[in-house]
Design goal:
The chain is α+β, with helices and mostly antiparallel strands. The protein contains 3 helices and 8 strands; from the N terminus they run αβββββββαβα. It has one domain: Peptide Deformylase (Alpha-Beta Complex). Bound molecules: nickel (II) ion.
């Protein structure tokens, strides 16, 4: 947080299935696993392209993360389904050591493409919907602290959750 590249809108990917796009996905996956994240977006590793990955692996930080299928999502478009909002704790690999309560749409549809350009179209809810909203916000230059409505519920992981092992990095 503080790096201006995290505040820039990312460019759409124009060519699918290229070695460069596959290498980017590999870098994202390696970083997500190493940092124990539930997802990661290309701008977080300094690449301003509309690529996010999420899910697929159990994470000590997000025990529910392996309930979400591993997904590479390119050029995503998010459409909220209804206007019901839900609050939940979030952290971010770009904001290490902290957590905050963020309101998100409870249900949403997301569309986009996989690494080869095959279309993806899913309607999801709950934690899955939250992770997608968090990661796709990175493509708009938005970090989760910018979405927090109640700043009294934003703080350091080891202070907020002293009894839990929620290692951030
Ligand atoms: Ni993040």
């Amino acid at each position: 947080m503080g790096d201006p590249r995290l505040l820039e809108p990312a460019r759409p990917v124009e060519r699918f299935g290229t070695p460069a796009l596959r290498a980017l996905v590999t870098d994202l996956l390696d970083t997500m696993k190493k940092m124990n994240g539930a997802g990661i977006a290309a701008p977080q590793i300094g690449v301003s392209e509309q690529v996010v990955i999420f899910g697929g692996f159990p994470s000590s930080r997000y025990p529910d993360a392996d309930e979400i299928p591993f997904t590479v999502l390119v050029n995503p478009v998010l459409t909220p389904l209804g206007d019901e909002m839900e609050e939940g704790w979030e952290g971010c690999l770009s904001v290490p050591g902290m957590r905050g309560v963020v309101p998100r749409f409870r249900r949403l549809r997301y569309t986009g493409f996989d690494v080869d350009g095959a279309p993806i179209d899913r309607s999801v809810e709950g934690f899955h919907a939250r992770v997608v909203q968090h990661e796709c916000d990175h493509l708009l230059g938005i970090l989760y602290p910018m979405r927090i409505a109640d700043m009294s519920r934003f703080g350091f992981v080891d202070v907020l959750f002293p009894d839990q092992d929620l290692q951030d990095d």
